[in-house]
Design brief:
Its main location: membrane. It holds the Pfam family BPD_transp_2. Belongs to the binding-protein-dependent transport system permease family. LivHM subfamily. The protein contains eleven helices and four strands. By secondary structure, it is mainly α. It has one domain (3-285). A two-stranded antiparallel ribbon has the order 1-2. Strands 3-4 form a two-stranded antiparallel sheet. A hairpin with a 2-residue loop joins β1 and β2 (7-8). The mean pLDDT is 88.
């Protein structure tokens, strides 16, 4: 059996696959955070709860309405995005222009309320969502076995990440979003409804988290606390990439997933801390993050 540093090659490839999958989720979630902070300057601590809502919504749509995975893949993020729009309109808009700590505390409180309410109804033991029939099985690549659903998660997550980056950085709509948050009065003078633009931007960032939740539902146990487990890691990824950097969130998310996966292979005790160690080193060398810009 082929070995690398005493680790069987099959095990190495398996952990690398897990790392890429986790990296795809980190990229999607980090991207949503980067969109919200980069364009709206809101530190969204409810982001993990929105990820959880996407997964919970997928399970509940199937259990109570019989809605399949493919419909839920589009419907669940839209429903959670609407929840985000309501949160922005009724809560976050009231503290617009205040210090970042207010949005952090407010969204943290919202996350705790959502988590508490759903825990009261569904408990913490977890709900299961069956793998879609389309993705049963996998393919033998010779050096490893690749499940179809894992391959689907990697491909669609990266496509959504690239599409979001392209829309924000390369299109007229993206220029409106950036301009609307940088000089709201000027954009309103051109007839742009800036408050609506802000609500839709926040809703879109939330939709990215919910989309990641839908993708996660067939892989992980769906519980009301699943968002809190991943939120701190995702914030660390965003800090490493640079707060508000769209491209940095995507690249760093994937890279940190791979680093975490490889660490589990060669030194498992450090796997839960390696991302935070990278964050500390990056901040010491470059306080704005790898792709961040000076204010």
């Amino acid at each position: 059996m082929s070995m690398i540093f005493g680790v069987p090659l099959a095990v190495l490839w398996g952990q690398l696959l897990i790392g890429i999958i986790n990296g795809a989720f980190y990229a999607l979630l980090s991207l949503g955070l980067a969109v919200i902070f980069g364009l709206l300057k809101i530190i969204n601590f409810a982001h993990g709860a929105m990820y959880m809502l996407g997964a919970m919504c997928t399970v509940l749509l199937f259990d109570y309405l019989g809605i399949n995975y493919w419909v839920a893949l589009f419907l669940a993020p839209v429903l959670v995005g609407l929840v985000g729009v309501v949160i922005e309109y009724f809560l976050l808009r009231r503290i617009a222009g205040q210090d970042h700590i207010y949005s952090l505390l407010l969204t943290f409180g919202v996350a705790l309320m959502l988590q508490g309410v759903l825990t009261n109804f569904f408990g913490v033991s977890g709900l299961r969502y069956s793998m879609p029939d389309t993705f049963q099985g996998g393919m033998n690549l010779g050096f490893m076995f690749l499940p179809y659903y894992r391959a689907w998660v990697i491909v669609v997550a990266l496509l959504v990440c690239f599409g979001t980056w392209f829309m924000i950085e390369k299109t007229k709509l993206g220029s409106y979003l950036r301009a609307g948050t940088e000089d709201a009065q000027l954009m309103q003078g051109f007839g742009i409804n800036v408050p609506l633009l802000v609500s839709l931007t926040y809703g879109f960032g939330v939709m990215l988290a919910a989309f990641a939740g839908v993708l996660a539902a067939p892989i992980y146990s769906v519980t009301p606390v699943m968002g809190s487990h991943i939120l701190i890691v995702v914030f660390a990824v965003v800090v490493i990439g640079g707060m508000g950097s769209i491209g940095g969130a995507i690249i760093t998310g994937v890279l940190m997933g791979v680093v975490e996966g490889l660490t589990k292979t060669f030194y498992p005790p450090a796997s839960s801390a390696v991302i935070f160690l990278v964050m500390v080193v990056v901040l010491l060398i470059r306080p704005t993050g790898l792709f961040g810009k000076e204010a």
